[in-house]
């Protein structure tokens, strides 16, 4: 008998009580406190020499955050002030709950573009989306659903990022040349641009193109071999603020008789945003009728799924890029991001997430802890309190140039090259994601990309790795099926058809008929009921072809599934140290060698 005979008939179920008890005990430990409140881990270790670096990094990021926030407010079709309202609270919350020192949480181009279709001229929808997205993300984090991000492959995320960059940059082309436009789709923006190219404003076009060139050149200042490198570095990092300052000065100095030389972003509501709950009812801007909470939720619809998903995806991707060898706790990052959105919604914010551009600036500025986010938040608050009248002179062409310049470097050119060189088949989900996002919508394009990539996994699981070969042993025609890797229900039918077809073809060729099929399965960790039933059916089909079937050296968990289903099938499992030993057992009808507990790590 098998040394592990009892294990074949006893399924090992998880000990729920022990697992719950262990989880409860771990929740009461200091380790859990450090995990769910990371500030308790790094703050006691804070050194005074970190403060100067955090202040410089926070200031540098703040100089970028202010113009970007105003620009992203425009991308979302919101008043510019709402971009600023979204740019400060995330930094304060992330200090307490965030795990990556470099991340800056605030409005981003992708989030602004995702929110735009739901705004419909009413900022209340953007604020409600911020609150509800925060609730969804927080719940996902508390349920440890960060693992879901593993199902989104790099080709899909790279394709989505590229499509978003193309769509966002295209949406700013009209503003770059001073053409008024309400179009926001990729094709519609280009169609509008060429149809109205005669309405191009010369001053705006010159300013926009010159600002774009200036931003691209200033990005390279940090690499200049002359002068003080640290000075060039910080000028390069503050390039957006420099571009805005130049645009404001030109707009103010070239003003004639109260007429501005450029189209401007318009007045920004002065003062700090009021602290108030997110709107759960609003007034319809078209009809003037009141819309209740149910109506607002119905209006945002799929945004309640796509915006939290993309917010999490963008933030965790940024965290992984700057984690520097540390393991990213995706669930804790989701909690930090969710709470940031919830609290930001009380200050009239649109949905926010981790910003790659500002995080890169934060990292390059030498930030040491998440405390730099407080400095950035303070700068945004000071801007709202004292500088809103000045920012009313920001030309739209300048903001368009800032956004387009950022999009140039949002595309992951190096990753695209790596995908091409590594495995060209992975370019298919990349291209499918890009094309569907650009020519359909970002949210549906992302779903199509994920589903298309999942089809590869399904196809692979439908065709398990196994070799079929026929050999003779002491005059017996034996077909050996060597299974590799896992076998699940999707592959069960394919496995059965392949073996039956192989035996049938061999028998029809004439000569010695196949009388034995050996399925080698020491690498199979486990199987499911569908596979077990198909193997039982396979044995019956082979018996009609006067062919026997045995399973050789299967692991105990995999063999146990079949034995528990039907104890009579225990006889088809054989264990031996070598194939000749197995054939000797079959030839002389000797009892099988005592069961070898197959190591699953083989």
UniProtKB/TrEMBL annotation:
Alphabetical list of InterPro entries matching this protein: SLC26A/SulP_dom, SLC26A/SulP_fam
Keyword Chloroplast: no
Keyword match Membrane: yes
Location(s), subcellular: Membrane
Membrane topology: Multi-pass membrane protein
Top-level taxonomic group: Eukaryota
Protein name: SLC26A/SulP transporter domain-containing protein
């Amino acid at each position: 008998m098998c040394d592990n005979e009892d294990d074949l008939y006893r399924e090992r179920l998880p000990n729920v009580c022990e697992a719950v008890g262990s989880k409860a005990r771990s929740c009461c430990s200091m380790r859990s406190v450090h995990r769910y409140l990371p500030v308790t881990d790094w703050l006691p270790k804070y050194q005074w020499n970190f403060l100067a670096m955090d202040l410089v990094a926070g200031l540098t990021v703040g100089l970028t955050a202010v113009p970007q926030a105003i620009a992203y407010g425009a991308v979302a079709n919101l008043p510019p002030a709402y971009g600023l309202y979204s740019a400060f609270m995330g930094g304060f919350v992330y200090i307490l709950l965030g795990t990556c020192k470099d991340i800056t949480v605030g409005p981003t181009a992708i989030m602004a573009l995702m929110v735009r279709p739901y705004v419909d001229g009413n900022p209340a929808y953007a604020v409600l989306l911020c609150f509800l997205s925060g609730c969804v993300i927080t719940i996902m984090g508390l349920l440890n659903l960060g693992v879901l991000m593993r199902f989104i492959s790099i080709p899909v995320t790279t394709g989505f990022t590229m499509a978003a960059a193309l769509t966002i940059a295209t949406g700013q082309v009209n503003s770059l040349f001073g053409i008024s436009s309400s179009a926001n789709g990729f094709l519609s923006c280009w169609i509008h641009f060429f149809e109205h190219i005669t309405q191009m404003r010369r001053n705006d076009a010159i300013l926009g193109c010159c600002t774009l060139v200036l931003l691209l050149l200033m990005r390279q200042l940090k690499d200049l071999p002359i002068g003080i490198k640290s000075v060039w570095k910080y000028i390069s990092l503050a390039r957006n603020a420099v571009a805005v300052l130049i645009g404001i000065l030109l707009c103010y100095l070239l003003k004639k008789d109260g007429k501005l030389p450029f189209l401007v972003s318009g007045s920004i509501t002065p003062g700090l945003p009021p602290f108030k709950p997110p709107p759960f009812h609003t007034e319809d801007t078209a009809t003037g009728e009141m819309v209740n909470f149910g109506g607002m939720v119905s209006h945002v619809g799929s945004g309640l799924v796509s915006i939290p998903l993309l917010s999490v995806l963008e933030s965790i991707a940024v965290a992984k890029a700057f984690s520097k060898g540390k393991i990213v706790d995706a669930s804790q990052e989701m909690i930090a991001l969710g709470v940031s959105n919830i609290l930001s919604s009380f200050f009239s914010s649109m949905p926010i997430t981790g910003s790659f551009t500002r995080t890169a600036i934060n990292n390059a500025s030498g930030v040491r802890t998440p405390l730099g986010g407080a400095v950035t938040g303070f700068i945004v608050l000071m801007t709202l309190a004292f500088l809103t009248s000045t920012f009313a002179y920001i030309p739209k062409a300048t903001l368009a140039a800032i956004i387009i310049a950022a999009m140039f470097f949002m595309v992951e050119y190096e990753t695209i090259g790596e995908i091409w060189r590594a495995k060209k088949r992975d370019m298919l989900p990349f291209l499918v994601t890009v094309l569907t996002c650009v020519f359909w919508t970002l949210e549906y394009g992302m779903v199509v990309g994920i589903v298309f990539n999942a089809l590869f996994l399904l196809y692979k699981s439908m065709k398990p790795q196994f070799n079929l070969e026929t050999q003779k042993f002491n005059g017996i025609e034996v077909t050996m099926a060597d299974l590799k890797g896992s076998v699940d229900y999707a592959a069960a039918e394919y496995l059965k058809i392949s073996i039956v077809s192989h035996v049938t073809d061999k028998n029809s060729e004439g000569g010695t008929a196949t009388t034995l099929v050996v399925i080698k399965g020491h690498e199979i960790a486990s199987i499911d009921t569908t596979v077990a039933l198909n193997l039982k059916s396979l044995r019956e089909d082979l018996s009609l072809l006067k062919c026997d079937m045995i399973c050789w050296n299967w692991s105990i968990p995999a063999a146990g599934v079949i034995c528990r289903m039907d104890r009579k099938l225990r006889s088809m499992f054989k264990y031996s140290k070598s194939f000749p030993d197995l054939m000797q057992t079959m030839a002389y009808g000797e009892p099988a060698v005592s069961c070898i507990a197959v190591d699953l790590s083989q």
